[in-house]
């Protein structure tokens, strides 16, 4: 694909590293200097640019910038506001969805299709993307698992060391026979037909019968400048009853206390429902991330439920000790 772009006269500009390490406006300086027309950012970078105030100035010339996309993890609705209201009013911004297994994007932007805040517009060409219930039936307007329902040339042929293909079949085809399970929950808007990505299907929480994705909690908590980061996971008791546990990493200069907990609870009630309020809200010093920049809910979930876990893909494994043997989480509920 890269060769094809070059033959068409399109140049690629790749940047590796923290885009605001040298200065708060370094990314925007690069966009202006190299006259970038189409910008792709990891979702967490887009979040950080807004949260820490690393904004373009009035002197930046973005006349060449036509569109921007974010992906790699869940793109929050606030990112749409940031790009349209702060970066450039006439830009085309959208969230994308893809995976390592398909080596690309499955849901993206088509400029002839309307873009709605917080949604990914349409499935990519020749991708039969569906959102299905537990029986494998296509659904709209409610949580379901994303699948690719028909064979496609880009689907993986196998996994390293999986000589008979059994591991690949179990991982991707066992739950919905003959269909490739992406491993993520989403909701298809029945009106716009856009996709709202809700996170990993094995990370979804179900507290007292209310099922929700951790991203819904993050969308609310991330609006609090006092909170630098957060992670929300499930904990189970001996009867396998489930409750949500929310960990907050405070911004330097702010302190974890009953007031911030109460205001977060009120905000979750207002934006979602009172049933979405995590039963336990605690402070932590840091949040584990993968080398791809994704929050590692599964590993935190395994730690607080005293299950085995693997630290090979954790970028900051030293923080995991913060989630071990927390007294409040040792009590029965």
Description:
With 333 residues, this protein is an alpha+beta fold. The protein has nine helices and 15 strands. The strands form five sheets. A four-stranded antiparallel sheet has the order 7-8-9-10. Strands 1-2-3 form a three-stranded parallel sheet. It has a three-stranded antiparallel sheet with strand order 4-5-6, with no helix packed on it. Strand 11 (205-207) and strand 12 form a beta hairpin. Pfam families: AMP-binding. This is AMP-dependent synthetase/ligase domain-containing protein.
Short description:
It is built from nine helices and 15 strands.
Please render the helix and strand layout as text.
Blueprint: H1 2-7, H2 26-33, E1 38-42, H3 43-51, E2 67-71, H4 77-87, E3 92-95, E4 97-99, E5 104-108, E6 122-123, E7 129-132, E8 144-148, H5 166-172, E9 180-188, E10 195-200, E11 205-207, E12 210-212, H6 214-221, E13 227-236, E14 242-250, H7 258-271, E15 280-283, H8 297-304, H9 327-330
């Amino acid at each position: 694909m890269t060769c094809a772009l070059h033959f068409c006269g399109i140049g690629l500009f790749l940047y590796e590293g923290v885009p605001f390490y040298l200065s708060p406006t370094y990314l925007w300086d690069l966009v202006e200097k190299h006259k970038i027309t189409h910008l792709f950012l990891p979702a967490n970078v887009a979040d950080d640019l807004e949260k820490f105030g690393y904004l373009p100035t009035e002197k930046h010339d973005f006349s060449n910038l036509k569109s921007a996309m974010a992906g790699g993890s869940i793109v929050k609705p606030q990112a749409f506001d940031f790009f349209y209201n702060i970066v450039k009013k006439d830009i085309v911004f959208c969230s994308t969805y893809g995976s390592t297994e398909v080596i690309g994007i499955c849901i993206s932007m088509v400029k002839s299709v309307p873009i709605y805040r917080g949604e990914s517009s349409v499935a990519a060409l020749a991708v039969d993307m569906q959102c299905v219930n537990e029986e494998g039936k296509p659904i709209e307007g409610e949580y379901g698992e994303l699948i690719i329902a028909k064979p496609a040339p880009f689907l993986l042929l196998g996994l390293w060391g999986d000589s008979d293909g059994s591991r690949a079949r179990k991982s991707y085809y066992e739950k919905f026979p003959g269909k490739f399970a992406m491993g993520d929950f989403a909701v298809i808007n029945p009106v716009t037909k856009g996709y709202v990505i809700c996170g990993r299907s094995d990370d979804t929480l179900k507290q007292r019968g209310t099922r929700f994705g951790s991203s819904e909690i993050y969308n609310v908590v991330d609006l609090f400048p006092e909170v630098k980061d957060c992670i929300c996971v499930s904990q189970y008791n001996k009867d396998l009853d489930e409750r949500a546990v929310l960990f907050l990493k405070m911004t330097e200069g702010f302190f974890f206390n009953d007031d911030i907990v109460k205001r977060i609870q009120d905000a979750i009630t207002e934006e979602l429902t009172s049933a979405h309020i995590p039963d336990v809200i605690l402070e932590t010093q840091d949040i584990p991330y993968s080398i791809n920049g994704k929050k590692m809910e599964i590993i935190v979930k395994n730690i607080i439920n005293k299950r085995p876990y693997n630290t090979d893909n954790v970028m900051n494994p030293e923080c995991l000790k913060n989630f071990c043997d927390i007294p409040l989480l040792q009590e029965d509920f």
